[in-house]
Amino acid sequence: MKTVSAEHLVKTYDKGEVRALNDLSLDVAEGTVLSVLGPNGAGKTTVVRILATLLQPDSGNAHVAGIDVIKHPDKVREVIGLSGQYAAVDETLTGWDNLVMFGRLYHLGKQQSINRANDLLERFSLTESARRPIKTYSGGMRRRLDLAASLIVQPKVLFLDEPTTGLDPRGRMEMWGVIEELVKGGVTLLLTTQYLEEADQLADEIAVIDRGKVIARGTSDALKKQVGGERLEITIENQDMAKVQEIVARISASPTHVDGRTVSAAVSTGSRALIEALRALDEVHIHPLDIGLKRPSLDDVFLSLTGHVAEETVAEPVKKKRGGKK
Known about the structure:
The chain is an alpha/beta fold. Among the domains are: 2-79 and 155-224, Rossmann fold; 230-294, YebC, transcriptional regulation domain (Alpha-Beta Plaits), CATH 3.30.70.980. It is built from 11 helices and 15 strands. A hairpin with a 2-residue loop joins strand 12 (257-259) and strand 13. The protein is globular. Mean pLDDT is 87; it is low at 321-326.
């Protein structure tokens, strides 16, 4: 069963001059996690806003939990939770006050709002800071509180729009742990991100979007294969470059690439390739300055799939038909 589905979504801005979504279709099966992966400007936030009933498409249709998001937005809002890129909390209030306020806004009774706030503060390890103003919270604490607020009504479907934006590595890891716990509880999740490793960690499937359309979809392993998997990289100083190329080519059975004093090639055997390379280099008395396995990055994915790196983009201008108005 597809808990979330979107078909042929189109969304334009500036009187149709800029196309944010360009015939985009995707779906999320019940109880699974789909990560929508792409750079800024690719259309990630636009599709989330449409599915969360905050924005209407120019054409196409979308359903959440079997409910038409255009015809019945109020019913959709009863079954979803949404956490955007920036914490939607009142900085002058305490964490506890914010959650109780959200409960009341969702028409929960006073005591039910209090009980739910206390439960969520404990779940997200915020009990000790519950009575402090939000302005004293760290970035990671604010993100956790914002996510807690999105769960006040215990949603069937959760939309997380770049939930770890602006967090340091430790904060990102903490947020991943929180999200993984939610998934274990059976929530259907659509997650947008710019980080391939985040999608790799959290998602059952990944949809890569660029310029408003899905350009690839599959499991993490499937996408890695599309971009060549891991690469073995060896950097040397004043030693035999030809010999290093020969070793790398033998281990990888793939074409080698030379960049300055670094030799690299795609490998499929992971750490075993690294061990073989070290042994082979030692046998010919070559001591590398650096050696390692490089996992595919978002740039690698986009360069392979689109021909351009995953830099910040803008929505695609709509091409005018010949003879149309200017």
